[in-house]
Specification:
The complex is a heterodimer. Chain A has 21 helices and two strands. Chain A is mostly helical. Chain B contains 24 helices and two strands. The chains are: A mainly alpha, B mainly alpha. Chain B: This is Actin protein 2/3 complex subunit-like protein.
């Protein structure tokens, strides 16, 4: 109780710093905001046992991130929110007193950057919401994604704006927040098979909102992921800019923005990938819940993200290359690649059975095996463009290597199906597949990434 | 009048016309006062004062009084001369002077018609009013920020390992699978760049558990000097992957034939234009040659250093002294405005570098780092920035933050104080009511002391420190009145009363 009253005092004192702000956009006002961030940080971390800020304090920090107009304010508020989340997770798994089993702990006073309310309520509130700086509702999240798509269209350093940066930072924070809320719940779900835990996850509620066009949103996310990769590598090689950077104080700002863009752009890519992976994890858990009959009609039906991605990769050829280049989480990458092939090659019955993962075709090694004889290789080439096949196999091989090195490191469970085939076998089959493809098409031009893959396979074979 | 003119002459305006009463003269006064205001880092109150004078003056001249008698009447003391410039940053001053000077000059030229005094004077008053608004906005902007990087040096030429020195390439050429790949030694560099960018190289190394010298050296140089983002980023990821592989506890799982040294990292930093000599790079950077650093390689440099620091338990890449040096460098990078957007990796790098030390080393090293930083950092808002950027999220950071704040205080008092109590004593002795009291300095003292005591480990053992801190805070919060118009008066007062009520003052 003593701690509680102390926290209220801290809250009043720190928020008073903000209340004194009169004019909005002056340096003084920004100084006060920075002073506030410092004060929150000091109040939270300086005590021997760190004390989490109150909801109101969280909210004020978040507001600075949402409407702050200087680079310093954005970076500081983002940093503070990340630090706070790291130290005071709102949801976590803890060992229960009984011993073996775990339990889910949800913090007493939960603050969330999202407002979850019934769809009707959020509808009426929407009018006054624009840029108020408060928590986002579902349409606010959609809006943010749309604005991120704008960032992804930035072609040169000159077009960069501070708002772009803010949107990226905001998105990163939200993506981390959603993940932080989901992961412990998912662990608990796997242990207890209690769907309610996941049903109440922010992500599930967000995606289930009828106010959101889920499919379009996911497509936007996917294209942002691919575009940002281009922007990121493009801008960093914008030499015109570097060469012109003769020292003028006014250019400090541009250089700062360019540096920020380079780094924040990259971390936004990572955050976007994380969001997609988290959604796919949620989808798999939901599928299990569906099968076990734990879901009800109120849970709604949603196309699994994996299917949306597969459709996009199939029908939007332009994003296949950047997607494979940027998406580097091996487990899901391998899954996507294997499913991509199965879409073309598998009989419907096999696809249906795929859920339990027992079908050999559904592993990468199984996939390589289907290129092991000329007839079946020819069949696949008839269905899928040879360039696409090369690209997918090379990336699949790499994802498999990543998985097996994680396997060695003990990060993954030994029962993981994808790593069961030995490394040597995979390397052999990889080379064999391409020898087979070459026989089916003498003039086949081998892609650079495939040459690299084969070099790797051959070198691994010769050293083992 | 005399006082007025003498003020102008003191402020460095030469060649004032002796003839008074001319509109031109008044205009000149405005210009002069504007520059004066700029030169003294601007005083909002001063402007209000000036404006009032001109209003009255305007009123009189419209009534066809002579300006001379008027100005005589208005010879109230101008006390702004007492206020010394508060350690203004030269860059800010220059900028302000330019803006204001240009505007005023334009007004002066735009209306030469001496017959239409009325219109002109109202113009003057208006422009003065506008200037005042501008000044109000700009008031008290002195910002942190230094040019930590000067001009870049030409990066060294990057050599791909010579033919025959790279066994990875050599052994493949004769492999039967090369009939499919058709690799030749000539295209070695491009091909290896592909291997690196697409992530194959780390897979090869992790499966063979060995990195040959030529590859290690080549990728390290790409991190430091390559102009292609893809290459430096991939090279950095490659090193992070081989260093951070987790399957061994006390030794690196991958045998690395060659390790980078501190001196090479330092050499790169110098090539990027880094210099501890902040003041000289801050003022005059030659514009004739080269471009100002740092290059984007700094990002990869930071990540690489962080990765090296994190493997201390398996391999000590740096000596204790070198690690101290790294912490200092990374802290100083926070002072460059250009790098604000990198704060996330700067924090990461700083944390990794701070956790590099063993517990035995840390206490001494922390002290050394703090002393050295305190000597290097300019004693203006930059010294607050440097304390702020040491985030206090873990014990070592808190410790360092407190130590740096304390050491800066020691330096600010020209090493006159030899103990903690003495520092506080000196602080308490400052009379904030005294007009000559530099409140900007006071503001810096206050914030430094706050940070020093915020996570001061011995506060429980030394109640006297806490008591003195309270006395100091009360003097700042009670003795400065809320009508005190001196710059930083309100900031000092508000901060002190916040701290008095705050949780940190137990």
């Amino acid at each position: 109780m003593a701690r509680g009253s102390n926290r209220t005092g801290v809250e009043e004192n720190t928020l008073a710093i903000l209340e004194s702000i009169e004019a909005d956009d002056t340096q003084d006002a920004n100084d006060d905001r920075l002073a506030f961030l410092e004060a929150v940080s000091a109040a939270s971390f300086a005590p021997e046992i760190p004390v989490p800020p109150t909801s109101k304090m969280y909210e004020a920090v978040f507001q600075i991130l949402r409407v702050g107009n200087s680079l310093e304010l954005m970076m500081s508020s983002y940093q503070l929110l990340s630090d706070l989340d790291k130290h005071f997770p709102q949801v976590y798994v803890s060992k229960s007193s009984a011993g073996e089993s775990h339990e889910l702990v949800v913090a007493d006073e939960v603050w969330s950057p999202f407002t979850i309310s019934s769809d009707v309520a959020s509808n009426t509130r929407r009018a006054g919401r624009e840029n108020s700086g408060g928590p986002l509702d579902f349409s606010g999240f959609t809006l943010l994604i749309e604005e991120l798509a704008e960032v992804a269209n930035v072609k040169s350093v000159k077009e960069m704006k501070t708002e772009h940066l803010r949107n990226m930072l905001l998105f990163q924070y939200l993506a981390h927040f959603l993940e932080g809320d989901f992961l412990p719940r998912n662990i608990m779900y796997e242990e207890t098979m209690n769907w309610t835990i996941l049903r109440e996850s922010l992500l599930n509620m967000l995606l289930g909102s009828r106010r959101m066009n889920y499919k379009n949103l996911m497509k936007d996310c996917l294209s942002i992921l691919c575009e940002l990769y281009h922007v990121h590598t493009g801008i960093s090689n914008d030499h015109e800019y570097l060469e012109n950077s003769i020292v003028k104080p006014s250019e400090d700002c541009n250089t700062a923005l360019a540096f920020a863009f380079l780094e924040v752009g990259k971390s936004t890519c990572i955050a976007m990938q994380k969001l997609l992976i988290t959604i796919m994890e949620l989808d798999s858990s939901k599928k299990i819940a569906d099968i076990k009959g734990q879901t009800t009609r109120t849970d709604g039906v949603r196309t699994p993200l994996l299917e949306i991605i597969l459709d996009e990769l199939t029908y939007n050829v332009d994003i296949l290359w950047p997607f494979l280049q940027v998406f580097n989480q091996p487990k899901w990458k391998l899954e996507i690649i294997v499913q991509y092939f199965l879409k073309y090659t598998a009989k419907p019955s096999i696809r249906a059975r795929r859920s339990n993962g027992s079908v050999d075709d559904a592993t990468f090694n199984g996939l390589l095996n289907s290129f092991s004889n000329d007839t079946s290789a020819k069949n696949i080439v008839k269905k899928i463009n040879i360039g696409t096949i090369q690209l997918l196999l090379a990336h699949g091989f790499q994802a498999h290597l990543s998985l097996s090195s994680q396997h060695i490191e003990g990060i993954l469970d030994s029962k993981d199906e994808q790593t069961e085939s030995s490394l040597v076998e995979i390397c052999k089959n990889m080379i064999c597949a391409f020898q087979c493809l070459r026989r089916t098409d003498e003039k086949m031009e081998i892609l650079p990434i495939v040459r690299e893959a084969l070099f790797t396979a051959a070198t691994i074979l010769s050293t083992n | 009048m005399l006082q007025f003119s003498s003020a102008l002459i003191q402020s460095g305006v030469d060649g004032l016309p002796t003839r008074s009463g001319s509109v031109k003269y008044i205009n000149q006064i405005i210009v002069a006062m504007l520059s004066k205001a700029a030169a003294s880092a601007s005083k909002f109150q001063f402007w209000r004062f000036t404006l009032t004078k001109f209003r009255i003056w305007h009123h009189f001249t419209s009534n066809r009084e002579t300006t001379e008698s008027l100005i005589m009447d208005l010879d109230a003391p101008l006390d702004f001369e007492n206020d010394d410039p508060l350690l203004p940053s030269p860059a800010v001053n220059k900028k302000r002077k330019k803006i204001i000077g240009a505007k005023a000059q334009k007004d002066y030229d735009s209306d030469e018609d001496e017959n239409d005094k009325e219109a002109l004077l109202s113009n003057i008053v208006n422009s003065c009013q506008n200037q005042m608004e501008d000044i109000k906005v700009e008031e008290e902007i002195s910002e942190w920020g230094l040019q930590v990087f000067g001009n870049q040096k030409k990066p060294p030429h990057l050599d791909f390992p010579k033919r025959g020195s790279c066994s990875l390439l050599q052994s493949f050429i004769n492999n039967e699978i090369n009939t499919l790949v058709e690799l030749t030694t000539d295209e070695g560099e491009t091909f290896f760049e592909g291997l690196l960018v697409n992530g194959w190289l780390s897979k090869l190394v992790l499966s063979s558990c060995e990195v040959e010298k030529s590859i290690a050296n080549w990728t390290f140089n790409l991190i430091l000097y390559s102009s292609k983002e893809e290459l430096r980023e991939s090279a950095c990821e490659f090193w992070c992957a081989i260093l951070s592989c987790k399957n061994e506890i006390d030794s690196l799982p991958v045998k690395i034939d060659w390790f980078p040294s501190f001196s090479e990292l330092n050499k790169a930093l110098v090539a990027y234009g880094f210099s501890y000599d902040f003041s000289s790079t801050g003022k005059s950077v030659s514009t004739d040659s080269g471009c100002r650093g740092p290059p984007k390689n700094l990002i990869a440099w930071l990540k690489f250093v962080a990765a090296c620091c994190r493997v201390r338990s398996k391999k000590s890449i740096f000596s204790t002294k070198e690690a101290e040096n790294l912490v200092e460098v990374v802290t100083c990078l926070f002072l460059d405005h250009q790098l604000q957007g990198l704060s996330v990796i700067l924090y990461e790098c700083m944390h990794s570098a701070i956790s590099y030390f063993t517990d035995q080393e840390w206490d001494t090293s922390c002290e050394k780092i703090a002393k050295s930083l305190a000597c290097r950092v300019p004693k203006d808002l930059n010294c607050l920035r440097i304390v702020d950027c040491i985030s206090g999220v873990n014990n070592r950071c808190k410790h360092l933050r407190s130590a740096v704040a304390y050491q800066i205080l020691v330096v600010l008092f020209s090493n006159k104080a030899t103990s903690e109590e003495e520092i506080l004593n000196l602080l308490i002795k400052i009379n904030v009511k005294d007009k000559s009291c530099d409140l900007f300095r006071m503001y810096i003292y206050l914030l430094l002391t706050e940070n020093w005591l915020l996570s001061y480990p011995k506060l429980e053992e030394k109640p006297v420190i806490n008591e003195m801190w309270g006395v100091y805070l009360r003097s700042c919060s009670c003795l400065i009145s809320s009508t005190d118009m001196r710059p930083y008066a309100s900031k000092v007062r508000n901060k002190a009363s916040y701290l008095l009520q705050g949780p940190t003052n137990k």
